[in-house]
Design a protein that fits this description.
This protein is an alpha/beta fold. It has helices at about 35-45, 75-80, 115-125, 130-135, 140-150, 155-180, 180-200, 205-220, 220-235, 240-255, 265-290, 295-315, 320-385, 430, 435-450, 470-480, 495, 525-535, 540-555; strands at about 1-10, 15-20, 25-30, 60-70, 90-100, 105, 110, 125-130, 390-400, 410-420, 425, 455-460, 485-490, 500-510, 515-520.
Length: about 550
Amino acid sequence: MLTHLSIRDFAIVKTLDLDLSKGLTAITGETGAGKSIAIDALGLCLGDRAEAGLVRSGAGKAVVTANFDLSNLRTAQAWLTELDLDDEDNCLIRRVVSAEGRSKAYINGTPVPLQQLKCLGEFLVSVHGQHAHQRLLKTDVQLAHLDSFAEHEPLLNKVSSHYFALKQAQKRFKQLSENQQQRDDRRQLLAYQVSELDDFAIQENEFEELELEHKKLSNSQALLEETQLSFHQLYESEEFNAQSAIQSSLDRLSVLLEHDPSLSPIVSILNEAAINIDEAAQELRAYTEQLEIDPLKMQQVEARYSLALELARKHNILPESLYATHQELAAEYAGLAEDENHLELLKSEVQELQQSYLETALKLSLSRNKAASKLAKQVQNEIQSMNMQHAKFEIEVNFDNSQTPSALGQDQINFMVATNPGQAADRLDKVVSGGELSRIGLAIQVIASSKNHIPTMIFDEVDTGISGPTASIVGQLLRKLGKSTQVLCVTHLPQVAACGHNQMFVTKFTDKQTTETHMISLSESERIEELARLLAGDKLTESAIANAKELLGSID
């Protein structure tokens, strides 16, 4: 529970230190004195948004520190231990906001991100604002109250899991379905193109080889004639050939070596030349012998070469890329066929997920119906005790599998009430007055507190629209709640304030230049005076004081 709250330079508070205890603590004060400032400061400490306007005028920063006793709160202890933020049974939270609006947060002296403050705050404090009962008119809020009461979080998580799996499958199916016509058109084109390329069946690097062979066959006659002529000139000509000429020069120079040895290098060069010419002549002989002029082969190569060029032009690519293009188009065509198979599989998957979702959502609906009966009975008992003796409260849970699925199932929830005998139950917004709605909202909040196990509950003027005997009943209800939970209640009703185990008074002081808010704990005599003020106004009378004593003394 919250044991201490320290506020420095926050709004119109210069300095404020509050020691808080168990039970119901009523907070009263003058109108405009800032009764809700301590609650706002605590909200900041637990992760509310920080703004520069929260810093007291003229101050450099606002600092709010809250100390909690966690000795009976194992969930919060476990959370802190997991993040290595634990300090035995104590938890100290501090929030600092600069005049520029920048903020820092600390848990047990360790800097933490804002999200961790918010997460921790859910274990520590539950705040019910003065307009919380108006939110009860919204069906999503009604659903949240029912689910919280039912305590079927695993079932909710299962429905949510099935829902998101279904959404993802539906999204993929929709994307594939929307492109169906484009894929059909593309598949038809690819079927023709791939079939044509399959028939041609060009191999990797084949075009380069085909091009070389085409050039060779196209010039085979010239190749034969010229190579034969070259062989003749190098080796066979009787009148003159290169081999004979070099050999003749070699013979003469070899004789001259005896007279001048310096001719030796030249003789060596001619020897090598004679050998090279002989080898070249033999190669030419072999080449001309294997070279053949084959018109039929030339026709075949010409046809395949031309078809390769034609296919390359069709696909607007270089002929050398024909093989790679064939592989790419074939892979794309196979991929489109896979898409068709995948579309059918996705269709089956969507149907299976829809069935799983509906089955789980139906189980959730049955759980809600069961919890709705119990919650409605408890709410009815509570509001009947709050001067709504003839009220009948019901909760409708209607499963509608025709509506669009959601992560929360497919139930339509309506809180229904009949406030007068013989009157048919109808939705809250059509039946109840503001005061009646406040009582119903308070009853639900009190019932919910027994389920959420949060140690500190704050009610900020939730008794708006309530007066007279009903106010006394509400006060007794909050006092009863305070026996098991720490309750802080900002109120303007003396009947509610009198039910507090403790009472604090908020006052505002101004010297025409600055304004300060103070909050003090009241003694019994001071409580009597404050209750008298609430009963009679600022002018205290003997009868008002007597009424205050009687009111305070009547509390069990």
